[in-house]
Design a protein that fits this description.
Number of strands of chain B: 4
Strand content of chain A: 5-15%
Shape of chain A: globular
Helix content of chain B: 40-55%
Order of helices and strands of chain B: HHHHHHHHHHHHHHEEEEHHHHHHHHHHH
Structural class of chain B: mainly alpha
Largest interface: A-B, 65 and 64 residues
CATH architecture of the largest domain in chain A: 3-Layer(aba) Sandwich
Number of helices of chain B: 25
Oligomer: heterodimer
Distance between the termini of chain B: 24 Å
Radius of gyration of chain A: 21 Å
Radius of gyration of chain B: 24 Å
Number of helices of chain A: 12
CATH topology of the largest domain in chain A: Alkaline Phosphatase, subunit A
Number of domains of chain B: 3
CATH class of the largest domain in chain A: Alpha Beta
Helix content of chain A: 25-40%
């Protein structure tokens, strides 16, 4: 029997209750905050493209005559694509990404997927989040499990932060509590020290029940996180202007936290709206330009502040879309798609071939790179975290770091 | 989607003797709860019923609940309870006014007012349940009239009014047929794009995955075929419109049944599946009884049977649940995480500030992740511990801090904790402490936490005559109680 997303979140949060020493007990003073300064200070920023991004119109095989056959209303012509080579081109909305590519800051892993793909948004997203294709998926996410591995395991403070969204993604579910931040302003507690002290004192008395222990730890962690964020708001001056879009604002906040000297290793954020069943062209154009502009601003900002060499940005979506367009000038749920990587030390350029358009399964692209091989590379080659316990198996890492 | 794992887990709750007795005889467990020496009717249980089958209760409502007893209290929660109770026309008129100016937040605020002051809280609870179940968002629909129309459909259904020609009251099949023709739903899941020459699977998929059966109980082929049956079900000029030229009249095979099926046939066939009787029962169990522990083997069997035998009468099912021994047992007590609606509306109902500021409450609900009319996806809100994270806890704390402000802030100092306690006869320092611990936590806080709280509170009011210190301490007391782990559960 399959479990549900609701149940995952519930049970993974319950799992978190069984943890060892509560954070509030370990955190004797603010001074302890930075004492576990890691040797490896590399940062991963995950950007989730929610809804199923049309990979075929993102990295466009414009040099393939079959592309023009499958895409009629939605075709992006030779004269429109931002050419990568004489076969591949980027969607014209991605000008910033093209410039980053020219600077050697973008890697594009093509044909990423997994066996027996699901076309349910929820099931497929859960697969990407749990890094499992088992019928019964685990209750923790791949990043949640990564936080339990050395060296991240031993960090104090917040090793991961999620920006935006109504709830914490399953990918981050595990024993550690990960803060979810809509805006740094929302973290102002606006509560007098005395009120805060009384509430905390009573909340810190040991509780008998695992549910209450989970709530207790979340409450005490939230006060601590609020105090940390209060330190870094208001003073940040980015080196470049960010677009005033939801993703732009979220990446700006991430930059603020990085520049604020937090030890946070993993940032997670998302951009929604990729489920383009009808009238795709204008919406996809808007989404990709927002993605490109926000990522470009973030990379340039971090580059000028000297952080880009320790940053890796990774995008993913729950699936690509079908090769053939539908009759509503849209596309339906498909399978394999490209993943983008950005950063100062990324292996720049195309990684792996475009899946062939003359060898489809039931009208869908065949994947050649398992997404867990990308995860394995991110974990081992980038974060220095052993991948096997996280991915529950061996996946050969894709070469993504130069 | 909600095919829940069942099993006999190790959670401490299942070692409780009362719970073990219930599990040993599921048929009896779902019989109406009648208080007895071993399981007496107390203020705690009245408060529990008010939280789950209503939106929480003020002190006077709590007293009324105690007097009524469990079965009559549930009667009133269905048919007429809350005080002060405003007439339905008032909400309807307000809603119309906000619709005329196309105010999304205004409409949300009116719904919050219904929860605060409407006369039939359990009907409103179920209206919210269907909004979560058939989760449709204004983000895509972009038509407030359609959205309000859909919520009204749920409310009419819960009141036992007809929702479709020829349907029986409270019959799930009627609701599904009405929802399948509902303009907001048709926009939300691309009804107009579902044409004979190019079927769109969106509605057919969610009908099976999220509304009736759950994943794993149908095939991709069933979805494709069901989508064909719904072709031509359009919305036009604000109404359901059957576009015969766009409908596929060909043969379809859906869940092993072959015929020239249309959408109503799909609904009928879907409800014949064994999973159909389990799916909604499990979801309602999570909604009304327990969302934190696995569902014990066999416990729900009597409900599956009665739900099916009643012809999928959802009112009878919910009514049976909330009157049952299970509902009034440790298996249910505080085994749900307070949703933003539970937390915000419940707190305002308990504390009775002079101005309830429904628009502000609507904003807080949005910040806490439960913006009414804007569920995050067609799967609805992810409940349980997913409501809890550092940010939402800070917003919860800031909300209560603002509510108790002596002046200024969104509530403009309209809550006076000492006056509220005194209105109900709790006058001095100790009585006020007792009043709030009872009102907000059923008097149940672990002994040492209670000791720490009492110590802080008494230290803040050294002299019994100091009105200023008492006022300040009572405000601090309310904040401290609302930020305890126990208060995050309902």
């Amino acid at each position: 029997m399959l479990r549900t997303r609701r149940d995952f979140l519930k049970h993974s949060a319950l799992l978190a209750m069984g943890s060892t020493v509560p954070l509030f007990l370990r955190n004797s003073a603010a001074a302890a905050w930075r004492s576990g300064k890691p040797a490896n200070d590399r940062i991963l920023v995950v950007i989730q493209l929610t809804g199923g991004n049309d990979g075929l119109n993102t990295v466009v095989p414009y040099g393939d005559e079959l592309y023009a056959k499958y895409r009629v209303a939605l075709r992006i012509g030779k004269d429109q694509v931002l050419k990568i080579d004489d076969y591949h081109g980027l969607h014209p909305a991605m000008k910033g990404v093209r410039e980053l590519l020219e600077d050697g800051l973008v890697g594009i892993v093509q044909g990423v997927g997994y066996p027996n793909p699901s076309r349910s948004h929820f099931r497929s997203m859960d697969i990407w989040h749990t890094a499992s294709v088992a019928e019964r998926l685990p209750e923790t996410g791949w990043l949640g499990r990564a936080l339990e591995q050395p060296p991240v395991r031993d960090y104090r403070g917040n090793p991961a932060i999620c920006f935006g969204g109504a709830e914490l993604p399953l990918a981050l579910a595990g024993r550690r509590t990960v803060p979810l931040v809509a805006s740094l302003d929302q973290f102002r507690l606006e509560m007098e020290e005395e009120l805060r002290r009384v509430s905390t004192t009573v909340a810190a008395v040991p509780r008998p029940d695992p549910t209450l222990q989970f709530l207790q730890r979340s409450i005490l962690d939230s006060y601590q996180t609020a105090a940390q964020f209060e330190r870094i708001t208001a003073t940040y001056k980015p080196a470049v202007a960010y677009p005033d879009t939801p993703l732009g604002r979220k990446l700006r906040m991430i930059a603020q936290v990085i520049a604020g000297g937090f030890d946070t290793r993993i940032f997670y954020t998302s951009i929604d709206g990729f489920d383009t069943h009808s009238g795709q062209a204008p919406r996809h154009q808007l989404l990709l330009s927002r993605l490109s502009e926000a990522v470009t601003a973030f990379c340039r900002d971090m580059q000028q502040q000297g952080h880009l060499d320790r940053i890796l940005i990774m995008t993913f979506s729950e699936f690509g879309r079908r090769v053939g367009e539908n009759a509503s000038e849209g596309t339906d749920h498909g399978t394999a798609a490209p993943m983008f990587l950005f950063g100062g030390r990324v292996r720049s350029g195309l990684i792996g071939p475009h899946p062939p358009l003359d060898d489809l399964v039931d009208g869908d692209l065949k994947f050649h790179t398992d997404f867990r091989s990308v995860y394995a590379a991110v974990l081992e080659r980038w974060l220095g975290i052993p991948s096997e316990p996280v991915l529950m198996g061996r996946f050969d890492p894709v070469e993504i770091v130069s | 989607m909600l095919v829940h794992e069942t099993g006999q887990p190790n959670a401490p709750i299942f070692d409780h003797p009362h719970v073990r007795t219930l599990l040993s005889d599921p048929e009896r467990a779902w019989q109406p709860y009648e208080p007895s020496g071993g399981t007496p009717w107390t203020r705690t249980w009245a408060a529990h019923a008010l939280r789950r089958a209503g939106f929480g209760g003020s002190w006077s409502e709590l007293q009324r609940g105690v007097r009524l007893g469990p079965q009559r209290l549930i009667d009133e929660l269905w048919h007429g309870f809350q005080q002060p109770r405003w007439p339905d026309e008032l909400f309807d008129n307000l809603e119309r006014t906000f619709l005329q100016v196309n105010s999304d937040i205004g409409v949300q605020a009116v719904w919050i007012l219904r929860m605060l002051h409407g006369g039939r809280p359990l009907v409103e609870r179920m209206t919210l349940f269907w909004h979560d179940h058939f989760a449709t968002s204004q983000d895509k629909v972009q038509n407030l009239r359609y959205m309000v129309g859909q919520i009204r459909l749920f409310r009419r259904y819960e009141r036992g009014e007809p929702v479709i020609e020829g349907g029986r009251p409270h019959e799930f099949e009627s609701l599904l047929r009405a929802v399948s023709r509902d303009p907001a739903m048709l926009v939300w899941l691309d009804g107009n794009a579902n044409r004979r020459v190019a079927p769109n699977e969106n509605y057919a998929r969610e009908l099976m995955e999220l509304f009736t059966l759950g994943i794993g109980n149908y095939t991709e082929k069933d979805i494709k075929e069901a989508a064909r049956a719904f072709t031509g079900w359009f919305v036009r000029r604000g109404r359901f419109f059957f576009a015969a030229a766009e409908h596929d009249y060909g043969q379809k095979t859906i869940l092993n049944q072959t015929g020239n099926w249309d959408g109503d046939d799909v609904i009928r066939i879907v409800l014949q599946q064994p999973a159909a009787s389990r799916f909604l029962v499990q979801k309602l169990y999570r909604w009304f009884i327990n969302e934190l522990d696995p569902i014990p083997d066999g416990l729900l069997e009597p409900l599956y049977d009665s739900f099916r035998n009643s012809g999928f009468d959802t009112h009878a099912l919910v009514d049976r649940m909330v009157r049952s021994r299970v509902f009034f047992s440790p298996l249910a007590y505080r085994r749900k995480v307070a949703s933003p609606v539970d937390y915000v509306v419940g707190t305002v109902r308990r504390l009775e500030p002079a101005s309830s500021r429904p628009r502000h409450l609507a904003t807080i609900l949005a910040q806490l992740g439960q913006q009414l009319l804007h569920p995050p996806s067609v799967a609805g809100w992810d409940d349980g511990p997913a409501w809890i994270n550092a940010q939402t806890l800070i917003i919860r704390a800031r909300f209560i801090r603002n509510l108790v402000r002596r002046s200024g802030g969104p509530f403009e100092g309209s809550f006076d904790p000492v006056a509220l306690a005194r209105r109900y006869g709790f006058g001095d320092r100790e009585a006020i402490l007792r009043f709030y611990v009872t009102l907000m936590l059923d008097g149940r806080l672990p002994r040492k936490a209670m000791a720490a709280l009492s110590e802080e509170y008494r230290r803040a009011v050294p002299s019994r005559e100091d009105g200023e210190a008492l006022d300040r301490a009572a405000r601090g007391l309310v904040v401290a109680l609302a930020t305890q782990p126990e208060y995050q559960l309902v």
